[in-house]
Amino acid sequence: MTEFSHTISLREYIDARFDSLDKAISLSREDMNRRLEGLNQLRNEVVTDRSEFQRKESCDTQHRELVQWREAVNKKLTVLETRSITWTAAVGVFFIILGFVLRWIGK
Questions:
Q1: What are the residue ranges spanned by the domains of the chain?
Q2: Which of 52, 91, 92, 101 has minimal CB crowding within 10 Å?
Q3: 99: alpha, beta or left, given left = phi > 0 and alpha = psi -120 to 50?
């Protein structure tokens, strides 16, 4: 009878061992599915975010155009500033000369 009871307990041990391995595999599968779901969600977020960005080539082209526009505006502003300074100086010199002439005529 001891051999038979020993066989049953060995069988129970083996069954318990296989049941625990099945449970471990099931838990591992659930954990892997959870992780994969998280990665899929992250991938979807990345794809969505990617659609909101511009390509580097188009950004470089736009930047180059903006730099050219800024340089053209700076040149025009420089010309306007130079003209306004020149005219202001000319008007100042005119009034200085006019003041000397009026003082000289007034004497």
A1: 1-53
A2: 52
A3: alpha
